[in-house]
Amino acid sequence: MDEKFALSIIVTNQSGVLTRISSLFSQRGFNIDTFTSGETENPEYARITITASGDQHKKDQLIKQISKLYDVKKVEVMEPDNTILRELLIVKVSAKGEKLREVLDAASVFRSNVVDMSPESVCIEITGETSKLDAFLNFVKAYGILEYCRTGLIAVKRGKNCLFKNTQTV
Amino acid sequence: MSLKNGCEIIVEILVEQGVDTVFGYPGGQVLNIYDALYKNQNRIKHVLTAHEQGAAHAADGYSRASGKVGVCIATSGPGACNLITGIATAHADSIPLVAITGNVPTDMIGTDSFQEVDTIGLSIPVSKHSFLVKDIKSLAPTIREAFKIAKSGRPGPVLVDIPKNVQIAETEFTPMPEVKKVPDPVPKTELLDKAVKLINASSRPLIYCGGGVINGNCSDLIEPLAEKADAYVAFSMMGLTSMDSESFRYLGMSGMHGRFAATNAFTKTDLVIAAGVRFTDRATGNKKHFAENAKIIHIDIDSAEHDKNITADIKICGSLQYSLKYILENINKKNNANWHKEMENIKSKETYPHSPVMTAQDVIRAVNKYTSPDTIIATDVGQHQMWVAQEYKFKKPRTHLTSGGLGTMGFGLGAAIGGCMATGKKTVLFTGDGSFGMNLNELATAVSQKLPITIVVLNNSRLGMIRQWQSLFFENRYMATIPDRKTDFVKLAEAFGAHAFRAENMSELETALDKAFKINTPVVVECIIPPEENVLPMVPPNGTAEDIILR
């Protein structure tokens, strides 16, 4: 049974490391759904969040193989119950007049921000869990989506516990 | 501390790491490294191969035979590309290598300059790790780290790519002692105690040895363990030299082309003690039915091997040597009389077909009479490789150099050169007409180096293993496996400057071997064997011991 999962990975912050990680996913037959990366509180390390899907056995194998990479310092599956998961979406919707009013109302219901407007379009920024972003896209689809762009998920555990203790505090 | 340039640092570190021989091929982006090698010929022997692939296989063979880290050097672009098959071969069999490649200067990387490729990109899926050294200050620590990675944990090949400007830049250099491998972690005692309990409770134990036993330098523990547990011992191809094959407990290789008794032992045993094996599809057949009446103890240095192919009852990750020693010391002395009866009965059913004409098996047995227990036996890949695994009486670890995981045709001659240089002793290569054709250019290397290598070409004028599959599973549609070549291997060998003999029957073979084993330079012995022989027994892909094809 395939299920979606999110992995957080701490790696050394060097060129080529992302290639090694993504290459491993394809070597082991995984499709990456989303991939985000950025520097951490310690500039020597970068933190990657990857979402993918696969069965339990393949997932366990993948995590073991990732852990073996020289540049990988920590890997963890982010359990949804105990994790803050966020994604950013910017969507450009075609709308004017009364239709525009409706889109703006929806934007405020979804607690999103209007970041740009032209006479015939509006650009909205929205953050949240994937399902919220999907729901918003589903709503504005009827008005005409010109284009959109999503960042992919980032994930942080709730509470005081951190993924990687060895980083220096800022 | 002294000021040195990058190339001098490379040589200093190789010497520091105990490297006495490197295999390589010069080129534009390693000219400076070769200049440093020129000035240090009294400290490091450089062996020029005919092709970079040969250099990688030679470094690999050197490592397999000696247990040391093998080193090869190639230039950028095509040089690096040609190393890749050799690096992948070492990776698949967990052989420690350090491959050094030159590259274009850092400011030219990414401009598609002459002989530029993304060497790191090429290396990622086929190596344990790879480094691009962009700064002279990180050169020495990086090469040292490469050696440490190569030999620590599950060993493997590491590539270090060094752009030309880094090779000529200067920095302060401080000599250091040889880097030590990171000690293998010691497994939890509770786990080992569980294993001990299972072994004590077992009445039909089967030890299953893989390449990890060789890599972990613990083959001396296998026979005592088998004796005390009163067990039989089966092997993956990579583990064949873990024990003296003359022991009655030695069942030989199991799996697709395994010995009948070894493959059947897995269906009869009540406990598999798997040491340093990875349960590849070629070894297990249908995984659902693999050792289905047995509990499995799986000891491996790499935790990713646990549950990858087979789910074991006890998974022990860490030092194999420590684990086996602990188990050996703590198990009871057993007497499994019924197990002997059962196994000796199965062994008696093993058949040895007799043929009126000279077969590969006849040749292997004949060569075996001329070799000594520590003779290095290299093979290529295909039918001859399986016949050697089945027939040759191995006695000591590190005497069998073969490409198990990747199955690289053309591996053998390079590996034999490396093995021969590591031991300085007579070395034998068994190859086929197909495999030999892939990298026979290395005959030139063997001749230049005056190496005592006897190359036994088992010539059936076929790409035999693939022909065998076409015969069994494709209704004899022999596509591209009957090459109809007119190669005269005797003349070919002589053209390279090697000695050569041809044998078409047993008496010619004896005459040829008598001469060949007296010659201390490369000799090719071409043996004409029947074209249509299959490697048997054979468990069809995804089959079980029930499906074993015997004739």
Which descriptors would you attach to this protein?
heterodimer; A: 170 residues; alpha+beta; Alpha-Beta Plaits; 2 domains; 4-stranded antiparallel sheet; 9 strands; B: 551 residues; alpha/beta; Rossmann fold; 3 domains; 6-stranded parallel sheet; 22 helices; 20 strands
Describe the protein's topology:
The complex is a heterodimer of chains A (170) and B (551).
Chain A: E1 3-12, H1 17-27, E2 32-39, E3 45-54, H2 56-68, E4 72-77, E5 83-94, H3 97-109, E6 113-118, E7 121-128, H4 130-140, E8 145-150, E9 154-157
Antiparallel strand pairs in A: 1-3, 1-4, 2-3, 5-7, 5-8, 5-9, 6-7
Chain B: E1 2-5, H1 6-16, E2 21-24, H2 31-39, E3 45-48, H3 52-66, E4 70-74, H4 78-92, E5 97-103, H5 119-123, E6 129-132, H6 139-151, E7 157-163, H7 164-168, E8 170-173, H8 189-201, E9 205-209, H9 211-215, H10 222-229, E10 232-235, E11 250-253, H11 260-268, E12 271-275, H12 281-284, E13 295-300, E14 314-317, H13 320-330, H14 337-348, H15 360-370, E15 376-379, H16 383-391, E16 400-401, H17 411-423, E17 427-432, H18 433-439, H19 443-448, E18 453-459, H20 464-473, H21 489-496, E19 499-503, H22 506-516, E20 523-528
Parallel strand pairs in B: 2-3, 2-4, 4-5, 5-7, 6-7, 9-10, 9-12, 10-11, 12-13, 13-14, 15-16, 15-17, 17-18, 18-20, 19-20
Antiparallel strand pairs in B: 1-8
Helix pairs in contact in B: 1-2, 1-6, 3-4, 3-17, 8-13, 10-13, 15-16, 15-22
